[in-house]
Design goal:
Largest interface: A-B, 43 and 48 residues
CATH class of the largest domain in chain A: Alpha Beta
Helix content of chain B: 25-40%
Shape of chain A: globular
Distance between the termini of chain B: 37 Å
Number of domains of chain A: 2
Oligomer: heterodimer
Largest sheet of chain A: 4 strands, parallel
CATH topology of the largest domain in chain B: Aconitase, domain 3
CATH topology of the largest domain in chain A: Aconitase, domain 4
Radius of gyration of chain B: 20 Å
CATH superfamily of the largest domain in chain A: Aconitase, domain 4
Order of helices and strands of chain A: EHHHEHEHEEEEHH
Structural class of chain B: alpha/beta
């Protein structure tokens, strides 16, 4: 299913400070949106989408917000725009952030992300939305994130990011 | 083609001339991570390196939940300590990371990576300090480098003479209202103008610190005599280049605000851009006043609080908390007799650090409590219960409100301009 949020969803809402106290990804998944949307962590399924408005992931640089969403199995975060540190953290961890106008998407809609065509298919509404996903994000996701990428290719491979 | 100040700093750190939009793998002068963000950098680091690129260029202050408020944080901190010892990096117990960087490390023209979203604070010292997450910090600790897309600059000109009772915090709250939480996204905010030029580094740090709430990549104020004076005061005078944007530099936007008539401002919960004159919400009852944080707890801020509190008492029942931003500030406040006066007035004084700002320790809020804070964030749940409410304002507004127990316009207590403020 989809989980729809508004504008300016900050990372304190995704992983509040008082729960931001573990490096275990599974524990972080359990507290995803724990105060803002308490039913999320218990009911989210791998393959679900997070749909949001403008400036998703603003506020604190905490990477636990990305770790938490990724470990919940979120297919992608689809939003009108992203805050920069959250976007970078997602790039690094292989979580897809797709940019498009999400105004017309509802929680009950059946969605499918076609990465090759860079299109979000809304099967319920019979619509296709063009999404923007930087090629670097897709390449790093194929590698399992930037750390596996550097581990495999060596630290010198940082230079290669410019070609992605 | 002319370059912006930011483009010049990126160019100097990439070995070639670059402009907005270019991809660079830049050399870093420092990498900073603290007791929270460093914990999540350890595992990624261990995957790709054994030794840090240069232990003298890695700064690890413990500030966010320190001294440790619970076993979970104590565990994370002991893991960071073990890493730091292995690598020959001292851990700094002297206060908030951004204050430490400005006092002791940064020099105009530097490019610094900070694993913290308020890294733009560094711009008050005329360097580019950019915020990232823990994985980027880990890679930087291993390599001394970070990739960036060179950002566009939005130039914000602030002109005019501030009236008594109006300060740098009120100026940045005005900018927050005008630009909103994503108005600066991915850009550098460059602050110029007569008001900015009249500010010392402490006030500039307030401007650049809170610029993070506008979504910017970072913020910067060009270096000048004030910057030289601050380095002198911090006991590390040194020559530096007075870099400026070229006359023919390309800015994405140029905005001017005149602040001669600016009133004391306040950010209303739960948004940093819902800013109104303090007088519009005056009279709202407060449970806690927090005077602290990297935004506004330098000695100059405590001087204002002292001036307002001298000989008076904080409203009985109101929790007034003073958390100096650094050990240096704490010791100077001690020397000047401020801390004695604050204690006599009925306030609590805590050790330098982030304290109550982020709801982990040192003044956590319960349901429906209302707090006025000199910090930079008032999100739902930021300081404790999601049902609490947080207003953001200047130290003068906070000090005045602590005396009355309700949100109070500081002009009731402040009549003359205080130095450059």
């Amino acid at each position: 299913m989809n989980w729809k949020f508004g504008d300016n969803i900050n990372t304190d809402l995704v992983t509040p400070g008082r729960y931001n106290i573990t490096t275990d990804p599974k524990e972080l998944a359990k507290v995803c949106f724990i105060e803002y949307r308490p039913e999320f962590a218990k009911n989210v399924k791998p393959g679900d989408f997070v749909i949001a408005g403008e400036n998703f992931g603003c506020g604190s640089s905490r990477e636990t917000a990305v770790t938490s969403l990724r470990t919940c199995g979120i297919e992608a975060v689809v939003a009108k725009s992203f805050a920069r540190i959250f976007f970078r953290n997602s790039l690094n961890q292989g979580l897809i952030c797709a940019t498009t106008d999400t105004s017309n998407i509802e929680e009950g809609d059946k969605l499918e992300l076609d990465i090759d065509r860079q299109v979000l298919v809304n099967k319920t509404k019979g619509e296709e939305l063009e999404v923007k996903i930087p090629s670097m994000m897709l390449r790093l996701r194929e590698e399992g994130g930037i750390i596996p990428y550097l581990k495999k290719h060596g630290l010198g491979a940082l230079e290669e990011l410019r070609k992605m | 083609m002319g370059q912006t100040l930011a483009e010049k700093i990126f160019s100097r750190h990439s070995g070639r001339d670059v402009h907005a939009g270019d991809f660079v793998l830049a050399d870093l002068d420092y990498v900073m991570a603290h007791d929270t963000t460093c914990a999540w950098a350890l595992e990624p680091f261990s995957q790709i390196a054994k030794k840090v690129f240069d232990p003298k260029k890695i700064i690890i202050p413990f500030d966010h939940a320190f001294p440790a408020p619970n076993v979970a944080m104590a565990k994370l901190q002991s893991e960071i300590r073990a890493f730091a010892e292995e690598q020959g990096i001292p851990i700094i117990y002297d206060g908030v990371c951004h204050q430490i960087m400005a006092e002791s490390y940064t020099v105009p023209g530097m490019l610094v990576l900070g694993a913290d979203s308020h890294s733009p604070t560094g711009g008050g010292m005329s360097c580019l300090e950019i915020g990232v997450g823990s994985t980027d910090a880990a890679i930087a600790m291993a390599t001394g480098k970070c990739w960036f897309r060179v950002p566009q600059t939005i130039r914000i000109r602030i002109d005019g003479k501030l009236k008594p009772g109006v300060y740098a915090k009120d100026v940045i709250l005005l900018c927050a209202r005008e630009l909103g939480p994503s108005g600066g996204n991915y850009r550098v905010l460059e602050y110029v103008g007569s008001t900015v030029e009249s500010f010392g580094v402490p006030e500039r740090l307030t401007l650049t610190n809170m610029s993070a709430e506008l979504g910017c990549k970072t913020a910067i104020v060009p270096a000048d005599d004030h910057t030289a004076q601050y380095l002198q005061e911090m006991g590390r005078p040194q020559p530096f280049e007075r870099l400026r944007s070229d006359p023919d530099a390309r800015f994405e936007r140029e905005i001017t605000y005149r602040v001669d008539e600016l009133e004391p401002m306040i950010a209303c919960p739960p948004d940093v851009d819902h800013d109104v004159p303090v007088r519009e919400v005056a009279g709202r009852k407060l449970d806690q006043v927090f005077i602290g944080s990297c935004t506004n707890c330098r000695i100059e801020d405590l001087e204002i609080v002292y001036g307002i509190w001298k000989g008076k008492k904080v409203k009985p029942g109101l929790r007034a908390i003073i958390t100096p931003a650094s050990r240096r500030v704490y010791e100077e406040a001690l020397r000047r007799g401020y801390l004695e006066e604050f204690s006599r007035a009925g306030a609590m004084i805590t050790s330098p650090g982030c304290g109550a700002c982020l709801g982990r320790a040192g003044g956590v809020l319960f349901d429906k409590e209302v707090c006025l804070s000199t910090s930079n964030r008032n999100f739902e749940g930021r300081m404790g219960s999601p049902l609490a409410e947080i207003y953001l304002a200047s130290p003068a507004t906070a000090a005045a409100s602590a005396l009355t127990g309700v949100i109070t316009d500081p002009r009731e207590f402040v009549h003359e301009p205080v130095g450059s403020f």
